[in-house]
Amino acid sequence: MQYSADYYYIAIQLHTMVPITLEKTYSVHSFLINPTKRLHLVGLLGFLQDIAAEHANILGFGYDDMVRSQSFWVLVRQKLVIDHWPHWNDKVRIRTTPILPDGMYAYREFEIYLGEKQIGSCSTTWMVLDANTRRPKQVTFKNEVT
Question: In this predicted structure, what is the pLDDT of residue 87?
């Protein structure tokens, strides 16, 4: 995997040894399939939400961190491209990386694999809202260098 300049900028800003990219494998269980025994959209979106939330916690801007700062994440845009839908009992590997925030927006990229073959990708755009005013807040990392 080649890393962009944004990847290294985030790593420097976070001053941390935690992985900027997180990878996790999910099993396609019976309750996640459609009548054709393929992973349904809601199941795949659940995988993406799960790994994003876990990674945000690791990086210091997860649910508990947001509650402490009286803020919350809002998904404002998502583009999902799938070339092949996994079947029941398949193992789906997902890799995610946050991308450098730009003003009011934060970005996260996902790569979706079945075995060693990439079968899809997803790009997401997020905003942080103030829990009291419901207004957007500037997206910054907790350990950002100023």
Answer: 98
